[in-house]
Design a protein that fits this description.
The protein has about 450 residues and is mainly beta. It is about 0% helix and about 35% strand. The strands form 5 sheets. The chain has a 9-stranded antiparallel β-sheet with strand order 10-11-12-13-14-18-17-16-15, with no helix packed on it. The two termini are about 15 Å apart. About 50% of the residues are buried.
Length: about 450
């Protein structure tokens, strides 16, 4: 679907709308623009090289340069709960669980009800378009939704779950974990506790400072920032802060009842320290808001560009169709002089027409600086390309199910786009004439 020179603030004008400009898929699976093709490269239940099964519910993904020519390393989340019959790595009723020691899982659940969230790592050859290796790389966590890549070759994977230690859970949940892209073994499952305990969604890392920006999937969520004590060493601790709008304490940016931010409107930002980040009462967002932090509508995907980042708010806006914000970093981001040259928050997109943008979720930035955005609405989900001027083009459409798209990310070469259809349990590689559209 192409909206010729159509911007989100024009979408009430039906003359902006035109038909889907996608080639029909004879398999009825995934429609793409002419010249583009897809291949399902990994599915739940496939046997991996370590003897375990590819888990279901694939979600966020990150890509890294491989160790050999044409190779891409992919670290992939799986948004699973504990369940004896789920599509976890151990098979039905966790029959392969005994192959691991309890300390290899973050939460082994007494080795009878383990956490089945976590990550798998794949090696993909762009020339042959084949997965050459895949293995379990983190296990024992709950609902690993999204995450983010680091510049030092690791993947930060986030638990979107705040289950507390109790009868079945052996440990508290709601943390971020770090997984090396280049390890062939299961990661030592240590949470980065200073990043806070809440319903984490995604992260983005500033390559200059190692500052980590975090979203929270709640209808009354906050945006967080973690300043590490030592660059590239997140487990060495740091300071967690929450985003606030200068001069507008506790601003509600959701625009549900009252419009507090307009599309294209910009606000100066300040970052407020927050304490007791382990939050046993799951109250970080309440305490942050009462302190003056801005409130957002289900912060989800986040991605770093050049001195800027974009993040989605899935059901923001009057019609709850979604919002996309752009944060321009301060030239003194994270330093003592930051307040004299503050960062700027802009409401980049707000959907007033669910036929155009219907609940945005994961996103990535293309090599040319445009956005590719996944929808998650339980209906007909699309991949949208949003240009820097706000023009919207539909890049892909799920024809096979009502599954969301998730984990969208380019290979380091830019030749392949990877994405998941989560409820289908499929990981897909898309190739084609990127030079014609990006």
């Amino acid at each position: 679907m192409v909206f010729s020179r159509c911007k989100m603030n024009d979408l009430k004008d039906s003359t902006c709308h035109s038909a889907l400009n996608l080639s029909p898929d004879p398999e009825g699976y995934l429609s793409l623009p002419e010249g583009f093709t897809y291949k399902i490269i990994s599915q739940s239940g496939d046997k991996m090289d370590d003897g375990f099964f590819v888990p279901g519910r694939p979600d966020g993904m990150g890509t890294f340069e491989g160790l050999s020519p044409n190779e891409v390393i992919i670290v992939r989340n799986h948004e699973n709960d504990p369940s004896p019959i789920s599509r976890g790595p151990f098979g039905t009723f966790n029959r392969l669980l005994g192959r691991l020691e309890p300390n290899q899982l973050y939460d082994a659940g007494g080795m009878s009800n383990p956490g089945l969230g976590g990550t798998t790592t794949l090696v993909y050859n762009e020339k042959t378009q084949q997965v050459t290796k895949q293995h379990l790389s983190l296990i024992g966590t709950y609902q690993n939704c999204a995450g983010g890549v680091t510049p030092w070759g690791t993947w930060l994977t986030c638990e979107e779950d705040v289950t507390k230690v109790g009868e079945e859970a052996e440990k508290d949940h709601g943390f971020v974990f770090e997984v090396s892209a280049y390890s062939d073994t299961i990661t030592d499952p240590k949470p980065i506790t200073d990043m806070g305990r809440f319903r984490h969604e995604a992260v983005a890392v500033d390559p200059k400072t190692s500052i980590v920006y975090l979203t929270e999937d709640r209808p009354d969520s906050l945006i967080y920032r973690f300043i590490p004590n030592i660059k590239e060493q997140l487990h060495r601790g740091g300071k967690l802060q929450v985003l606030a709008i200068k001069g507008k304490k506790s601003l509600d940016t959701r625009n549900w009842d009252v419009q507090t931010m307009k599309v294209g409107g910009q606000e100066q930002v300040e970052w407020l320290d927050i304490d007791n980040v382990l939050a046993p009462e799951d109250d970080l967002r309440y305490r942050g808001f009462n302190k003056g932090a801005a409130c957002f509508a289900r912060g989800e995907g986040i991605w770093f560009g050049v001195d800027e980042l974009y993040f989605t708010c899935t059901n923001g806006g009057k019609g709850q169709g979604g919002q996309i914000f752009k944060y321009n970093l301060s030239p003194d981001e994270g330093s003592e002089t930051e307040n004299s040259t503050p960062g700027i928050l802009e409401l980049f997109i707000e959907s007033n027409d669910r036929g155009v943008l219907n609940m945005c979720d994961n996103l990535t930035i293309t090599p040319s600086g445009d956005l590719l955005v996944c929808e998650d609405n339980g209906e007909r989900n699309k991949i949208l390309r949003i240009k820097k001027d706000g023009e919207i083009v539909v890049f892909g459409c799920n024809e096979s199910s009502d599954s969301e798209f998730a984990g969208i990310v380019f290979s380091p070469s830019g030749k392949t786009l990877f994405v998941n259809l989560q409820q289908n349990d499929d990981t897909i590689a898309i190739t084609g004439p990127w030079e014609n559209i990006l």
